[in-house]
Amino acid sequence: MSEMEDKTRTPRQDRSIKTKEAIVQAAMRLFSEKGYHQTNTKQIAAAAGVSTGSFYSYFIDKRAVFIDVLKNYSEALLARIEAYMSEINIQSPDKYALLSHLVDSLILSHEVYTGFHKELSIMYLSDGGIKELMDAQYEVGRVLTLQYLQMGKDELKITDLEAAAFLVFESISAIVDVIAFSSHRIGTDRIKSELVSMLVGYLYI
To answer: Which own/partner contact pairs does 193-199 have at CB distance under 8 Å and 24+ positions apart?
Structure first.
C-alpha cells in the first residue's frame, strides 16, 4: 500500500459516508456525460460540492473513484435484475412469455446506465484492473444463469447445464447490449422475438 493510499480514510460517521457517496454519484454523472478521460478530480469535487482536498481524503485518484462507481453500478444493476427475476414463475408452462419477461427486464435494467456503459466498454479494453473486476462480475451473471436453469432443470432438454448457462448468458448479454446501447436497423421487437424463440428452442423439450 502506498503512502497516498495510507492517507485515504474509510468513512464511519454519517456525514463522511454521505460525502463519499456524493463524490461517487458526481463521478458517475461526469463519467457518463463527459467520459472518463475528459473528467478530472477537480470537476468531480466541484460537482459533489466538496473541496479537492476533501476528494483526496477519500480517493487517491480518479481511477480509484471509477472503481467505486463500477462497484455501485454492478450492485445496482444486479439488484434490479434480481427484483425482476423475483417476479418470474419458473414453473410457468409458457416458456416464451417467461423468457420474454426476462429479456425485457434486462433491457430495462441496462437502459438506466447508457452513458456509463460506454465508458465501461472503453475502460475494459484499456485498463487491466478494470477488466479483471468486470470479468468477475460477468462470472456472477453466469452463475445466476446456471442457478436459474437448475431451478427448472426437469423441463430442459440440454444435459450440460454449466455450458448451457454460459451460452445463454453470453447470448442474452450480447443482444441486450445491442438493444440498450447501440443503434440497429432491425426493430427491437423483432430482435427480441427471435432471441426468445432461439432460447426456447434450445432449452426446452
So the answer is: 195/103, 195/171, 196/96, 196/99, 196/100, 196/103, 197/96, 198/171, 199/99, 199/168, 199/171, 199/172
Q: What is the pLDDT along the chain (205 residues), one digit of tens a residue?
A: 444 444 566 665 778 889 999 999 999 999 999 999 999 999 999 999 999 999 999 999 999 999 999 998 888 888 877 787 777 777 788 999 889 988 888 888 777 678 888 888 889 999 999 999 999 989 988 998 898 889 889 999 999 999 999 999 999 999 998 888 888 899 999 999 999 999 999 999 7
Number of domains in the chain: 2
Looking at the fold, whether 82 and 50 belong to one and the same domain comes out as: no
Q: What is the CATH classification number for the domain harbouring 38?
A: 1.10.10.60
Domain interval for residue 17: 1-60
Q: Which of 60, 79, 111 is the last residue of a domain?
A: 60
